[in-house]
Every structure is written in C-alpha cells, then in structure tokens.
Amino acid sequence: MRLLEPIEKIYLLDEDNFDFPTLEMMNNDLVAVGGDFHPQRLLNAYENGLFPWFMDEYNHIHWFSPQQRMVLYPDEMKVSKSLRKTIKNKGFVVKTNENFEEVMKNCASIKRKHEDDTWINEHFIQAYINLHKLGYAYSIETYLDDELVGGLYGVLIDDIFCGESMFAKVSDASKVAFYHLCKQAKENGINLIDCQVHNEHLESLGAKEIPREKYFKILKKK
Question: What is the pLDDT of residue 90?
C-alpha cells in the first residue's frame, strides 16, 4: 500500500496483501483505490470501516470510509402508522436469503432520483454472491403475489449489519424489508445497521449520522 495522493491521503492498495489504511491515515471520505474483490479483502474492508462504492473507467475499485457515517440502531427505527398498516394489511411476504442474486440485480437496475447510472456492475454482483455463498452477505426480500417487489442486501460483520443497497418496485416494499431487517437484528443480537452515507429515505426511518471516529470505536468494540 502506498500513498497515491499525499495531500488528500488517498492510498493505492497492493495486489499481494489485503491491508487497508487505519483511521489515523484517513483524511477524506475516499480512502483508497485499487485492489480486487477477493472475499478476504472485502471482509477486511468492512472490519476496518471501509466499503467499496464504485469502479472508475480503469476498473479501479474506490474504497470509502465517510467522515460522517450514517447508522441506525435497530430499536430506534421510526415506524409510521401508515407503515404499520401496510405491514399488517398489504399482503407482503418477507423472506431471507431466498433470492440474493435477484435482489442485487434489482438494486442495480432500479431507476433512482438524481442517479444516471448504477455502481453495482457485474463485478460487484459476483463479489457479493461469493460473500453470500460464504455466509457473510444476506438479503431480505419482499414479495407480493409471489413476485419479488422489494428488498435489500448487505454484509454481516459480527453484530453490525453493513447495508449496501435496497430497491422497491411498489410503494413501501423496501421499507417493509428494512422493518424486518431491524426486527431480525433485535432478535439476533445485531446492535447496529451501517447505512454508510446520508440518505433522506433512511433518515426518515430513524438513521442518523455519527462521526467516523465514533463509528470506529463501535466497530472495534465488537
């Protein structure tokens, strides 16, 4: 690992080891570029407070650790009256890990406001399928009339669920999946959901920003 941008403190990762910069070496949200999607590198990233966000035109992976980290404590999720009614009466069926690949593909293809393209390309999809097969990546899926209409996926690192992306084809489908994520988290001793970067949708559900330093303290206590 070597310093690529001395002023910005952006590092170029080595191909022959899976080390990442420490907290003391970080300056901006973008921390490192390069490396690959080897499962151990991905797990090391999450264990050290980083995650891959996108690949540039040279297929270099960009690794981030936001200075303000968006997180949600499962018991702090805000559930509106309308969402409770939807959960009870809408007819959604929620499953876990039944269709991981399709959840990722839907997250990649769904049209989003203020986004012209997706960062979830075929390299990301295969990388997280590999993690899923190893038992580290999980999906929660929302079905309506046997059709996959919403869901989310992420990586579980001990008692922290690192959420990656979510999608909804019908109203509230992703919220229902997120509600069940929080429910399962409380039932299984998962203490924090890492939402990574600020998102108004997740903020409305109770997520909040904390300093990077605080997130690292939580991470290292696990």
Answer: 81
76 and 112, same domain (yes or no): yes
Q: What is the largest CA-CA distance in the chain?
A: 56
Same domain, 56 and 88: no
68-72, strands of its sheet edge to edge = 93-96, 137-144, 147-157, 160-168, 192-196, 68-72, 208-211
Please compute the mean of the pLDDT values over residues 22-30 and round it to a whole number: 95
Q: Angle between the 122-133 and 100-109 helix axes, to the nearest 10 degrees?
A: 160
CATH of the domain at 34: 3.30.70.3550
Total domains present in the chain? 2
211 and 102 in a common domain: yes
What CATH number does the domain containing 79 carry? Answer: 3.40.630.70
Spell out the long-range contacts of 28-33 with Cβ–Cβ below 8 A and sequence spacing 24 or more. Answer: 28/67, 29/64, 29/65, 29/66, 29/67, 30/62, 30/63, 30/64, 31/63, 31/64, 31/65, 32/1, 32/62, 32/63, 33/4, 33/60, 33/61, 33/62, 33/63
User: What dihedral do alpha carbons 213, 195, 75, 80 form, nearest 10°?
Assistant: 140
* Residue numbers of the domain that contains 59: 2-65
Answer yes or no: are the C-beta atoms of 207 and 65 closer than 8 Å: no
Flag whether pLDDT at 171 surpasses 70: yes
pLDDT confidence band for 117 (50 / 70 / 90): low
Rounded distance, CA 133 to CA 149, Å? Answer: 23
